[in-house]
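Sequence in, structure out. First:
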Amino acid sequence: MAAQRPGAHSWASQVSDEEFRLSELDLHVLGSHPEILAALGRRWRTGPSTDTVAFAAAMPAGIGALVLAPGWFRQVQGEPWLEPVDLGDRAPSTASFFFAVALVGLVVLTVLWLRRGRLRAGTEVFAVVFTLVAALVALPLMASVGVDVLGFASVTLPVWGATAAAVAVLGAFTQASAGRRAGDAQDFHITGPADLERAHALVAALPPRKVKGLAAERTRAVGRLRERGMITAGQAAAVEALPIGSSITLDS
């Protein structure tokens, strides 16, 4: 049995301005029919959200910079700070490890961006910027505890690598993106091109009572979007005139 998901009316009541796309309406109307979603080239997103992945990608760089802070404080002030987490001589190598993990995180974010058709997510841009800032902070912290940063000591290479990679990924996100992530990328994976003819045939093959229920759900959702000021009367009329499943052809 397919997992129960919020219906189209719930989506219409909760979706934010930033994430709203009218093209997603029928995907929610048909959300309990995975075979029709498959014909439309979509499936429900499972696994961690984009925000969770972005947070996980940013965290290693932050930890890497943080473990260097006690050593810097000890050098400047001549006394320990946060002694329980002061790793002493092991701090640079520990930071190096975390920045190596951060490099993997940047690769993951780039792969996800490419798989989404170069649609960027705000949280992912933040994760890349955070990684870049953490790396730029870590380099002078390493230098303050005697690491030859400008000589590219081996322990600094992951930090330099993360710096360069973050600049490259940020440049790609800001200059080569096809647009901002929204709609389909939030709730659904795009699995392939939509076959509208097959999707319409599958809808038509449902029991008449079920088709009537889907139409009523869509009408309620459109009405809720109108109440919230998300769509105009013209847009509401246009989408209601389409066969169920066809909203994915809309631009907004």
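Second:
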Amino acid sequence: MLLFQHADYKRARDAIHNGAKILKIDDYKHLTQRDINFYTELHGVKFISCNFI
């Protein structure tokens, strides 16, 4: 589980460093709410859900 969390954390961080402002939450399933709040507050990133069909 920790490996998954680490991989998602790194992918999110890399995307943000590459200038991403909107990330699909579905792509980062193992991020905790705390992680999401951290990125949102620090980088102004929006996480959106893509569950609609």
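Remark: The mean pLDDT is 87.
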